[in-house]
Automatic annotation (TrEMBL):
InterPro entries: GH, Glyco_hydro_1. Belongs to the glycosyl hydrolase 1 family. This is Family 1 glycosylhydrolase. Transmembrane segments: none annotated. Keywords: Glycosidase, Hydrolase. It holds the Pfam family Glyco_hydro_1. It comes from Microbacterium horticulturae. SUPFAM superfamilies: (Trans)glycosidases.
Length: 397
């Protein structure tokens, strides 16, 4: 497609934004990430009250709906649902039920993530995903949130970015220093955690299908968009296999797979190649590459043919909202080209609705809405209205 051409989206196509509970709700005190923030202050800034969305979620949804978005992805926080082993909070279940109902009332399709990085502290302390009963415990949690899903959820993500969870296991254990990488390359996922997460996903996928008729179930993968220069083919292939492809293949048989793409990594004959000084970067240091979305969509479609795709995250950390609009325009052009080529993409969910807590740091700003760190006042950026116009017109550049 040329830049002057547009593509009309199907009426069922979702255009919305994503969030994650720990990053926006605040005071997630019974989670492992809260504990890590308190015990590693030299490495992690505290999340504190985050964006106070535990109490302001209606305002957040109002902003999304008023702009014209038709979908909102948010996560249910396991640590709130089951703060102690075997102790379930009915008030937390009711809270997330209200969120699902509130999304539907506003014309927003609720895309619900059931695990977005954080665990209850008791689960983490007992071995996390390497526990022998991990699937049983996660399945028990999913049974407790059945009323949330039955409130009107049609799309559920079991686990967000399992490949990043398997990498973070090595970082949290101290095996890998994330600031140094692994042998001059990217830290690779822990193989045992990889296997455990895939087994859990397959187990709970069948559980959810059996318990909730018509629910589309899948998981979302952090697409690293691994590429290479001459001489870097073997290193790139090994990295792509361990860090992405094994998780994509696990989505064979799913009802959908989530693509989460921001940039790319490049390998040369000497390992990972850092972008040169002439290469534009985002405010968090990633290569500015709108083309990454289309590249990730094509790779995913090749890995799991026949599985519908949803873009569950794509965005840019920047203080310049015009740059955000330019980046997203380029990303959507790539998505439009994929649709034109017959790739089955069902929706685009921008990361993120809010400027939020980015896993140890407040500096990255991915949001369509700015949040005052002291008053929690929300200020919609021009990019929110811009993306809402895309949703309303149902046209992609």
């Amino acid at each position: 497609m040329t830049e002057s051409e547009t593509m009309r989206l199907p009426d069922s196509f979702l255009v919305g934004a994503s969030t994650a509970a720990h990053q926006i709700e605040g005071d997630n005190t019974t989670s492992d990430w809260w504990m890590l923030e308190q015990t590693r202050p030299e490495r992690l800034q505290p999340s504190g009250r985050a964006c106070d969305s535990l109490h302001r979620w209606e305002e957040d949804m109002d902003l999304a709906a008023a702009a014209g978005l038709n979908a909102y992805r948010f996560s249910v926080e396991w640590a709130r649902i089951e703060p102690e082993d075997g102790v379930f909070s009915q008030s937390a279940v009711d809270h997330y039920r209200r969120m699902v109902a509130g999304a539907r009332e506003r014309g927003l399709e609720p895309v619900v993530t059931l695990h977005h990085f954080t665990n209850p502290l008791w689960f983490f302390a007992g071995g996390g995903w390497l526990r022998a009963d991990a699937a049983e415990r996660f399945g028990r949690y999913l049974e407790s949130v059945a009323p949330v899903l039955d409130e009107g959820v049609r799309t559920a993500i079991t686990i967000n970015e399992p490949n990043m969870i398997a990498i973070m296991h090595r970082v949290i254990s101290g095996e890998v220093d994330l600031t140094k990488g692994l042998g001059g390359g990217m830290p690779l996922p822990d193989p045992a955690v990889t296997d455990a997460l895939i087994a859990v996903h397959h187990t709970v996928r069948e559980q959810l299908r059996a318990q909730h008729s018509g629910l589309a179930v899948g998981w979302s993968v952090a697409n690293q968009n691994v590429q290479w220069l001459p001489g870097g083919e073997d290193a790139a292939a090994a990295c792509s296999e361990a860090i992405e492809d094994v998780f994509l293949r696990a989505a064979v048989g799913d009802d959908l797979v989530g693509v989460q793409a921001y940039s790319r990594v490049v390998f040369g004959p000497d390992g990972l190649v850092e972008p040169g000084p002439e290469v534009p970067r985002t405010s968090n240091g990633w290569e500015y590459r709108p083309e990454a979305l289309g590249e990730a969509l094509r790779h995913t479609a090749a890995m799991v043919p026949g599985v519908p795709i949803m873009v569950t995250e794509n965005g840019i950390s920047t203080r310049d909202d015009e740059e955000r609009i330019a980046y997203t325009t380029g990303a959507l052009r790539g998505l439009a080209d994929c649709l034109a080529d017959g790739i089955d993409v069902r929706g685009y969910l921008h990361w993120s609705l809010l400027d939020n807590y980015e896993w140890g740091r407040w500096e990255p700003t991915f949001g369509l809405v700015a949040v005052d760190r002291d008053t929690f006042a929300r200020t919609a950026k021009p990019s929110l209205e811009w993306l809402g116009a895309v949703a309303r017109s149902r046209e992609l550049p």
